[in-house]
User: Fold this.
Amino acid sequence: MTRGAMLYGFAILLGCQLLGEAFVRALVLPVPGPVVGMVLLTALMLVRAPLPSELGDVAGGLLKHLSLLFVPAGVGIVQHLGRIGHEGGRILLVVVLSTAVTLAVTAVVFAGLARLMGVAAERGEPDVESVEGES
Assistant:
């Protein structure tokens, strides 16, 4: 992959993020701009917009080194150790409760989608009777 092609793919990723930030700020949305940019990139892929093949190479390279992006978060935690020590109990409670709520919501959504798709949740097999009855 040439340097110019890599820069072009990276520019598309950054352009989608920039557009997402612009939408969020212009419409005062309670969603992070990069998330809106990712939705925009997904929409471009769904409508089969002509995107360069290098975009996949750039995205793969970023994902391969994703762990490096956690270094600034770790530095932030170290800088605020005193505050974390002071409010550690509350932070732990929020993390545990939010994890439990996330698991419960995920289970309910999965069960609802399984029922909607005609899958017997306890067997994990398709509900053949409802599928045959539709044809």
Summary: The radius of gyration is 22 Å. The chain is about 75% helix and 5% strand. The mean pLDDT is 84. The first strand starts at residue 119 and ends at 120.
